[in-house]
Amino acid sequence: MIKLIASDMDGTLLNANMQISEENIQAIKYAQSQGVEFMVATGRNRKEALPPLQEAGIDCAMITLNGAQVFDKSGTSLFTVPISKEKTRSLMDLLREKDIYFEISTSNGIYSESQTRRIENFAIHTAEAMPHLTHKMAIAMTAARLAFLPINYVKDFNELFAIEDLEILKIICFHQDGARVLGPITQEIDGYGDLVVTSSGQNNIEINHRNAQKGIAVAHVAKERAIQLSDVMTIGDNLNDVSMIQLAGVSFAMGNGEIEVKEYAKYLTDTNIESGVGKAIIRAIDENL
């Protein structure tokens, strides 16, 4: 019997308008009425994840930054898994050498060195999700969306190391040439030993501490709630979801998901623009998967 559901957000719970559909909302409320806990497991930080959840009236616990930070329903941080400052400095040198744009997610929010490059790189992701848009339209839409997301701009990331008690939780990298450039970088980072590289899109990679993975965080939450992993359901679409897809007793890949996610998942649901999450939840509960 399903007792805990963990869902990714981008490309999964959220539709093309970055909103939670009414069908998904009703399915989540149905699950909650059956005594099933729903939570999100996202690469976003909490401030980025909150707006669509609040708009939908969904109050839940959160696994954020791919598992680097976990919050209870009230917003209290339960634990963090940071990247050491020494490793961060080394990564910064590597990424700058390759001229790769990156952002640093911390316990105090997201930091960037360039608003222009941020918009340019996120516009590529927008264009992927909405291929009918022209480049100019994608830039305009991205700029409008990012204006509402909290971000801190600094002249030099080295300023972060002087902030007392600041923890580095994730580094996300973007390049318009995708795997051709980011693939070799991933191989180099794999040699660092205690880091893991995943992805939430064709043109990015996300770097976390090896113990900061969605699967590890979901397992931790389930243990805290005395829930067997066989009674856990996970839903995702991209490579940063694989760890939680692999461990759950019931797992769904989105119809728009990556091939690897579909290979690991036990079930397949519709795409994110077809309310695949809601359909998966109803099926799992009503069929007692």
Automatic annotation (TrEMBL):
It comes from the Bacteria. InterPro entries: Cof, HAD-like_sf, HAD-SF_hydro_IIB, HAD_sf. Coiled coil: none annotated. GO terms for molecular function: magnesium ion binding; phosphatase activity. It holds the Pfam family Hydrolase_3. GO terms for cellular component: cytosol. NCBIfam families: Cof-subfamily, HAD-SF-IIB. This is Cof-like hydrolase.
